[in-house]
Amino acid sequence: MVSPSQKPSVCINMAASGRHVGHYIHRNGRLLSGNLEQLFGHRSFGWTPSLGQQAAEAHKESTETIVIPRKKTWSKEAVLEALASTVSRDPTAYKYQFQDDPYLSPRTSTEFKLYSLSQESGRSAAKYFVNTNPKFFTKDFAEPHIPCLMPETVSLRLEEVSEEALKERISLRKVSAAVDMYDQLLQAGTAVSMETTHELLDLICIYCDRDPVQEGAPETEDTEGGEELKKRRVRIRQTLDSLKSTWKENNNAERIFNMLPERDLRCYSALIRGMVKHGAYAKAFSMYTDLLNEKLTADVHIFNALISVAPSVREKYTERWDLIEELLTQMNQHKVQPNLLTFNSVLKALRRCGSLAKIKSLQILNEMKALRIAPSLASFDHLLAIFYKAATYGQNTSNILQEIVSELNGSSFTCQDPGDVLFFTNAMKICRENKDLELAYKVQSLVEVGDNWMLLGDPFQQSIYYGRFFSLLCLMEHIDAIMKWYKQLIPSLYYPNTQGLKDLLQALDTESRLDLLPQIWKDIRSLGHDNKLDLVEEVLTLMAREKHSPEVQKSFAACALDIKGVFNGDRGRPSLEWSNSSLTCITSLLLRDNMTEQAWEIMQLFKSNNRVPAEGLLNDFLSACHSSGSPQRAVDLVQLSAAFCLPATAELAKRTLAEFNLTDEQRAVLSELESAAETSD
User: Fold this and answer.
1) Residue 150: CA atoms inside 13 Å, Cβ hemisphere, count?
2) 3-class SS at 286?
3) Could you write out the three-class secondary structure of 216-273?
4) Residues in CB range of 109: below 8 A, 6 or more apart
């Protein structure tokens, strides 16, 4: 552990820098003002060269001879990249990974997930078969040669006890076999070179002293079935995975490390980073103290690992920052130049430092500028997380994101940190929570620059980003723009979930464009959401709420018949359970288009499903029977009402006797029903 006596003494006064930022915030009345260049114009730690040194470097650069290359060297992909830049994305096409086989292109989010996992599983299975049976794949017809498609050497060829055999096991990531070979070499009195020892320690620490699971390896077949058994298997597998990734006391890495006569920086680095990776944070700091006692200087990778887990070994926010500051100061004292990952580790650790994080994070960004280290998207994502938590969906967070997006406008990025893929998703979340549509458009414009879309993450994370963007559009944008984005995003980039479709239906209702409901219903069916009862009933309720023009009512009636098929379980899908709302809405829609016979089929479903029709629906149906001249259907309706013992039976019978031309038999039936209803009342 770093001793308190090693507190920084040569670093620039950070307290004064903090007061400067605090005064700036207080004076301007907001967290950020102007642009980031104005705010981060001062420095704090002391890695930056002096002004005289900078001037000398500038003079040196100006006197260097400029060498003009004789010819331009193009990459092998230059022609393909040039051709790709001439075309834009086709919003009607499926994702690129499914275009080889259009028949199997996914139409729903469930199919997309299934096909994606199946594709990856197929690749893994093929790779496993190729690697375990290389004798069947000795000929290579590919032109040009593609090394990644050729079999890898996964079987051991050297059986004798030698350092070459140890290197082979290390290269094949055979952890247990490599450790056994190392022990045999020591027992035979054979010295192992320090370079090979370094590689062995790296291997053990990366995989936490366990053999990695070979990609595509088949699982053991289990004939037992049942959902509960599957869930139990998942829980057991998760528990085993967590145990595998836990650093064990006195494992082979520590044993080999303690056996070494001399331990250099590379050995300490392997163990410290392995302990950090697998959760032994306190042991990692203890090992770092041993490194200092050995008069060694840690490299930037050790400092990055320790900084990232500093909040896990301290309880109070101030203690966490003191430890981070102490590590940074020791980097400065030992002349260890920080890199981008160093500052990103600090910013990530500051997310767990409470109220201190706001001021300190701005100082860290200032230090990055002083060192001419450009922040990556992960840097800005950590900054958003720090201020977003403090602002609690307030306007200040939107201002910070506005500043960041303005700075990044038109820039193209490459992935420099694993956290880079989280920026766009979290930025869009802030836009949605603050209902800032203009800022959301700016974020989307930044995604469309160059290959920035690749930093949206995996397909499931991309779906989260576009889901938030589309939800904000439905909430704030007018319907024409919503439908324009709807056609561009779905389904080529985004398979909407149930909530996304509900947001779209609400937007149609707000803009009084319910005439588009039949079109949206077709998409709901094709996207596989027609099995969601609440979504289906929402569509029916909106169509049946009020009357429209005859053309619209005709399309609504056709849509209602299609929805009826969903409840009856067509296309081999499980049927939905009829409710009073769904039966009433479908009947009303059919009656408005004068489809009395089809409406009567729905009315009969009330009785078979133990549902009671409303009095208003009975009156509407009776009026439709009068308009279509169907006295028998009117009598059937009164009989249906009497079967439910409804209070409206007597009134329906009177209306039918007064408004319809009935036969004597029909009048006798109605008179009897009327008398029975009045007696019952």
Assistant:
1) 11
2) helix
3) CCCCCCCCCCCHHHHHHHHHHHHHHHHHHCCCCCCCHHHHHHHHCCCCCHHHHHHHHH
4) 463, 495, 496, 497, 527, 528
Q: Minimal CA–CA distance to 628: which of 590, 658, 665?
A: 590
DSSP string, 164-198: HHHHHHHHTT-HHHHHHHHHHHHHTTPPPPHHHHH
Residue 108 contacts residue 530 (beta carbons within 8 Å): no
Q: Which residues 6+ apart lie within 8 Å of 567 measured at CB?
A: 575, 576, 577, 578, 582
Helices 175-187, 163-171: inter-axial angle, 10-degree rounding: 170
Per the listing, tokens 């031309």 go with 661
The set of residues, in sequence order, having a beta carbon less than 8 Å from that of 444 and lying 6+ positions away, is 469
| Residue 136 exposed, middle or buried by CB count within 10 Å (0-12, 13-18, 19+) | exposed
Work out the percent of the chain whose per-residue pLDDT is above 90: 49
Greatest pairwise CA separation for the chain in angstroms? 117
pLDDT tens by residue, 170-199? 998 899 999 999 999 999 988 899 999 999
Spacing of C-alpha 584 from chain mean position:
40
Structure tokens at 309: 């887990």
Q: How many CA atoms lie within 13 A of 5 on its CB side?
A: 1
Looking up tokens 């794949």, which residue turns up?
Answer: 137
Residue showing tokens 């291997």: 203
DSSP single-letter state for residue 91: T
Tell me the C-alpha distance between 298 and 288, whole Å: 8
Say how far apart CA 557 and CA 550 lie, in whole Å.
10
Cβ 115 vs Cβ 528: under 8 Å? no
Q: Is the dihedral of CA 262, 265, 267, 271 positive or negative?
A: positive
Residue with tokens 């007064």: 658
- What is the SS3 string spanning 415-473? CCCHHHHHHHHHHHHHHHHCCCHHHHHHHHHHHCCCCHHHHHCCHHHHHHHHHHHHHHH
Per-residue pLDDT tens digits for 383-405: 999 988 644 544 455 688 999 99
Q: 307 Cβ partners below 8 Å, 6+ apart? A: 324, 327, 328, 342, 345, 346, 349
Nearest to 472 by CA among 514, 521, 436, 509: 436
What DSSP character marks residue 38?
A: H
Q: For residues 236 and 635, what is the distance between their CA atoms, to the nearest angstrom?
A: 65
| Digit-coded pLDDT (tens) for 311-341 | 999 999 999 999 999 999 999 999 999 999 9
469 has pLDDT over 90: yes
Contact indicator for 166, 185 with CB cutoff of 8 Å: yes
pLDDT-wise least confident of 198-202, 268-272, 669-673: 669-673
CA distances (Å), origin 581, targets 480, 555, 619: 30, 20, 17
pLDDT band, very low/low/confident/very high, at 546 (cuts 50, 70, 90): very high
Instruction: Copy the structure tokens of residue 587.
Output: 């009947």
The CA distances from residue 257 to 195, 205, 267, 270, in Å, are: 14, 11, 7, 10
Share of the chain above pLDDT 70, in %: 82
Q: Is 85 exposed, middle or buried (0-12, 13-18, 19+ CB in 10 A)?
A: exposed
* Verdict on whether the full-model pTM lies above 0.70: yes
Q: How confident is the model at residue 6 (pLDDT cuts 50, 70, 90)?
A: very low
At 42, the pLDDT band (50, 70, 90 cuts) reads very low
